[in-house]
Amino acid sequence: MPEKLNIDLNSPKILSVDEFEKIRSNIGADQKIVFTNGCFDILHAGHVDLLARAKEQGDILVLGLNSDQSVHSIKGEKRPVISQQQRAFVLAGLASLDFVIFFDEDTPYELIKKVQPDVLVKGGDWTVDNIVGRDIVEGRGGVVLSLPLLPGYSTTSVIRFIRENEVE
Q: C-alpha 23: how far from its chain's center?
C-alpha cells in the first residue's frame, strides 16, 4: 500500500474542519457552497458522475468523507476496503471537488453545521425528507437535492463482482 511506501497522500484540498472554517469566512456571499458526503470506498463512475453534477449546483463543492472509523461502523468490519487517506487523495484529484473533510460520526450532521452549505446534495437513493442536515440547510434558506444515480454503479456491486470472480 502507498502508506507503506512513504508516498505523500496529502493534498491542499484535504482539510480539517477547523481549516475549512477559516477559509469559509473568506468565501464571498455571492459564492454558493455545495455539500455532499459519503464513504466513497471504491471510487467508480457513479461517484464521479454524482460529484460532477453536485458541483454544477454551485461554486464550491465540499465533500464530507466518512473516516475509516465511520465506514466501519456503518458498513461492517470488512469495510472500508481503501483507507481514508487514500480515498481522500483520490477524491481530491477530481476537478469537481474543492475540499474534502473527514468526519468520524455515522452522519455528517455536525460537519454540515460547521460548513454551512447553501446547497446540500445526496444521491437519488436518498429522499429529500431523509437527507441528514436538511433542517440546517433549509433553515438558512438553502436547497436540498436528491440527484438521480447513474444506473448500475455501486461500491457493493464492485465488491460483489470481485469476490464472485476471484479477481486479485
A: 18
> CA-based Rg of the chain, rounded to a whole angstrom?
16
The cell for 66 is 466518512
Q: How far apart are CA 163 and CA 59, in angstroms?
A: 39
pLDDT in tens, 90-140: 999 999 999 999 999 999 999 999 999 999 999 988 999 999 999 999 999
C-alpha cell at 151: 444506473
Alpha helices for 41-145 (secondary structure H):
45-55, 68-75, 84-92, 109-115, 134-139
Q: Where are the alpha helices (DSSP H) in the chain?
A: 17-24, 45-55, 68-75, 84-92, 109-115, 134-139, 155-164
* Claim: this prediction has a pTM higher than 0.85: yes
